[in-house]
Design goal:
The two termini are about 40 Å apart. With about 450 residues, this protein is mainly alpha-helical. Helix 3 packs across helix 4, helix 5 packs antiparallel against helix 12 and helix 6 crosses helix 8. The protein has 13 helices and four strands. The N terminus is likely disordered. It holds the Pfam family TPT. This is Sugar phosphate transporter domain-containing protein. It comes from Nelumbo nucifera. InterPro entries: EmrE-like, Sugar_P_trans_dom, TPT_transporter.
Length: about 450
């Protein structure tokens, strides 16, 4: 440990705050700033008079684990010898060797008398978190709306979802390579076992993505999203077959989803069987991707969500494009010429295609970043509201006719997804509590 005489950032005066509580323990504070006389040792004598010869001192400057070298809650190291003091200039992991806020020495009186703490924060941190949460959801919703609008505009002119879906995965792959090349995102270490573990999730992601794109090309965007809100139904059914158990509240929550989707389907003006099946198969694909990912990627938890999604996009592109060429490749040239004529200006068509690809990746990237910053419950509620915002936005942009019963069915289905998110979160909290007790 460093002594106070070795610290060059302390002041010639000190003050103590008695009867203060720090992190729920009894401490008295001595905060110091400025420069000390290294030869006199008077400062140490003054400290010993204030805090007593048996003071126990904590080192707040040694911090661990936080990626930027500091905790939001400081850690402390107890020193039993009152003559030793904390090294305020020593930090572990922080790149510049100092705190953004001055560290405090916290001596505890040997008598162990009960003392109160200085309250942390003044509400500024909570306001910043609220603002950050609003920005995360704002970008996520905005990017999703832009993607759905331009994706549908392109499909209206160029009804070849296999090629468009392949292009969107291609844009996401290029985007990730740029992030890795420019070191804006740490590139994960790639091994043969990691690639093999990704093959299954990437295959199901491919199925989910292309099926949704086919559905978008056949029916209104709002109808596809209503049907896609039934994804929890498939999640519960498939997970139950694989051995998971769910409480009655979860099973009851999927009933309004089934009822609402059924009502929306039978009253949909733009109903198309291929569009319905595309949305349903998309749900199956994404549910199996999530289930398979949990099983096959358990040993690769060091790879963050964004990098994982990037590699899934790359492998999905390799899956999808050869099949796209086989399914509709012979029609692309003629379809391209018709699309250019319908658009009037080729640059307009190119811009729409590019925007659909860029914002497809961005909204998925934002969803992973949102999940890193907020709780699963907040994320699931936000995802439910995202569908509402997208449905309303696309109905307004494309002016799709909506019957009253169709609107009612959509509302019931989305409300069911909200109930499902509440029920599953309660189940997980209860499970975590039981595991902690054990």
């Amino acid at each position: 440990m460093h002594t106070l005489n070795q610290v060059s950032s302390l002041s010639p005066f000190t003050y103590s705050r008695l009867n203060q509580r720090f992190q729920g323990h009894s401490y008295s504070f001595i905060a110091n700033r400025g420069i000390q006389d290294h030869s006199s040792g008077l400062f140490n004598k003054l400290c010993s008079k204030i805090s007593g010869p048996r003071a126990k001192t904590f080192n707040l400057s040694e911090v661990h684990s936080h990626p930027f070298g500091f905790y939001s809650k400081p850690t402390a190291q107890v020193l039993e010898d009152g003559s030793n003091t904390s090294g305020l200039s020593k930090t572990n992991g922080y790149p510049f060797g100092f705190f953004s806020k001055p560290a405090l020495q916290i001596p505890r009186a040997a008598s162990g008398a009960s003392q109160e703490a200085i309250p942390d924060g003044d509400g500024t941190e909570s306001k910043q978190q609220t603002l950050q949460l609003a920005l995360v959801f704002g970008f996520w919703y905005f990017q999703n709306i832009v993607f759905n609008i331009y994706n549908k505009k392109v499909l209206n002119l160029f009804p070849f979802p296999w090629l468009l879906a392949s292009f969107q995965l291609f844009v996401g792959s290029v985007w990730m390579f740029l992030l890795w090349s420019l070191k804006l995102q740490p590139c994960p270490r790639i091994s043969k076992s990691f690639i093999i573990a990704l093959l299954g999730p990437a295959l199901f992601h491919t199925i989910g993505h292309i099926s949704a794109c086919v559905s978008f090309s056949k029916v209104a965007v709002s109808f596809t999203h209503v049907i896609k809100s039934s994804e929890p139904v498939f999640s519960v059914i498939f997970s139950s077959f694989l051995g998971d158990t769910y409480p009655l509240s979860v099973w009851l929550s999927i009933l309004p989803i089934v009822l609402g989707c059924s009502l929306a389907a039978v009253t949909e003006v733009s109903f198309n069987l291929q569009g319905l099946w595309g949305a349903l198969i998309s749900n199956v694909g994404f549910v199996l991707r999530n289930i398979y990912s949990k099983k096959s990627l358990q040993s690769f938890k060091e790879v963050n969500g964004l990098n994982l999604y990037g590699w899934i996009s790359i492998i999905s592109l390799l899956y999808l494009f050869p099949v796209a060429v086989f399914v509709e490749g012979s029609q692309w040239v003629a379809g391209y010429q018709r699309a250019i004529q319908a658009a009037g200006n080729p640059s307009t068509f190119y811009l729409w295609v590019l925007l659909s690809g860029v914002f497809y990746h961005l909204y998925n990237q934002s969803s992973y970043q949102a999940l890193d910053k907020i709780s699963p419950l907040t994320f699931s509620v936000g995802n439910t509201m995202k569908r509402v915002v997208v449905i309303v936005s696309t109905v307004l942009v494309f002016r799709n006719p909506v019957r009253p019963l169709n609107a009612l069915g959509s509302a019931i289905a989305i409300f069911g997804t909200f109930l499902y998110s509440q029920a599953t979160t309660a189940k997980n909290v209860k499970k975590d509590g039981v595991e902690k007790k054990n």
